[in-house]
Amino acid sequence: MIRIFADLHIHIGRTASGKAVKITGSRTLTLLNIIEYASFQKGLDMIGIIDCHSPEILMEMDEYIAKGRMVQKTGGGLEMDGITIIPGSELEIYDDSCKGPIHVLCYMPTLTAMKEFSSWLSKYMKNIQLSSQRIYVTGKELQKKVKSLGGLFIPAHIFTPYKSLYGSGVKASLSEVFDPDLIDAVELGLSSNTMMADQIKELHSYTYITNSDAHSLAKIAREYQILEVEEASFTELEKALQGVDGRQVAENYGMDPLLGKYHNTVCLKCHKPLGEEEEVCSSCGHKNGKKGVAARIKELATAGDKPSRPPYIHQVPLEFIPGLGKKTLEKLLHYFSTEMQIIHEAPYEQLAEILPTQVAEYIQAARAGKLSLTVGGGGRYGRVSNKNDE
């Protein structure tokens, strides 16, 4: 077995010709830039690019294959520049069973399967070119189509207040919208972790994944997992999600939920934290607070013994480290090659030789879980500080 770093939720902002795919995504998020950045700077082994249904992206991938730069792997997935790409698609469903819109992730084993999926999607979508578009079929119909193509079906960022399974989509249970047997895993999202999600009994049978939902290159691998597999391929990923033949999700690395921008319930006008029964902000009188992930999970919590899970390790992305700007990060990468090495392996003594002492101490404190956090909410991320600074 080998251990590989995987981030399975990365958006494409623009095609090579400049056409928008994820409208809110950075213009630098092209297919080529993602692959090079994820491989050479971030140090990932597997990435899920979840806008591969877009016809122009399919054409780009065909061009790389024709040039011999990209190859279809025998076990599924594609390889380019030493990294395995799992082609995927993020879609929005909002059928009669949904209380609100829900985003889901659909992954395909081959480019051929993704092309067939894209052709099918084009019959039920208004704009097949764009990411995260509404598909006018039921959740269960979509599940069946994904499975007919040998794909994986995963609800995305399941607690986010906007466009997610529990945040906006169902009253109490995923079975209101989906066939529970056709779900391969669930994605936790930035404002929750394993301990929080396991308060909901119906999730106990599913593997949890932790991904970046990157809308810019810098956001890639702000959350990720370590997989124990025989090789980096679609088939091995599927086995890891199923926990069979010794394959598994060995560790989840995610931002501390307190840093997530939807963790706390806050006033959307002045961002004052709101109590459970507080409908009107006592500071500014605004009436519309947005319920945070922590409060929503508390509403949904059910009894039941919690299952055995891999460790969920709170990870502070390097971009959150005070004093660690772009030029300083470039200096670190000159010595340690990838961000995975900086986060996981670089000795403190070497960091202290390269960085200002305080910045090196921040990285060390992040590893040890000794950073103080200001809670995020209402669309604003939390902030970090070193407990030793207090």
> Largest beta sheet, briefly?
10 strands, mixed
N-to-C SSE series? EHEHEEEEHHEHEHEEHEEEHEHHHHEE
- What is the CATH top level name of the largest domain? Alpha Beta
Number of strands: 16
**First CA to last CA: what distance?**
44 Å
What proportion of the residues is helical, as a percent range?
25-40%
CATH architecture group name of the largest domain:
Alpha-Beta Barrel
Structural shape: globular
| Beta-strand proportion | 15-25%
- CATH fold descriptor of the largest domain: TIM Barrel
User: Structural class of the secondary structure composition?
Assistant: alpha/beta
Low-confidence stretches: none
Q: Would you tell me the overall average pLDDT?
A: 91
With helices defined by DSSP (H or I, 4 residues minimum), what is the helix count? 12
CATH homologous superfamily title of the largest domain: Metal-dependent hydrolases
Overall description:
The mean pLDDT is 91. α11 runs antiparallel to α12. The chain has helices at residues 31-42, 55-66, 111-121, 139-148, 165-169, 194-197, 234-242, 293-300, 326-336, 339-344, 348-354, 357-367; strands at 2-10, 46-49, 70-72, 78-80, 83-93, 102-107, 152-155, 186-187, 208-209, 224-229, 248-254, 266-267, 289-290, 312-314, 371-374, 383-386. Strands 1, 2, 3, 4, 5, 6, 7, 10, 11 and 14 form a ten-stranded mixed sheet that branches. Strands 8-9 form a two-stranded parallel ribbon. It has twelve helices and 16 strands. The chain is globular, with a radius of gyration of 21 Å. Helices cover 27% and strands 18% of the residues. The protein folds into two domains: 2-257, Metal-dependent hydrolases (TIM Barrel, Alpha-Beta Barrel); 317-390, Orthogonal Bundle (DNA polymerase, domain 1). By secondary structure, the chain is α/β, with parallel strands linked by helices.
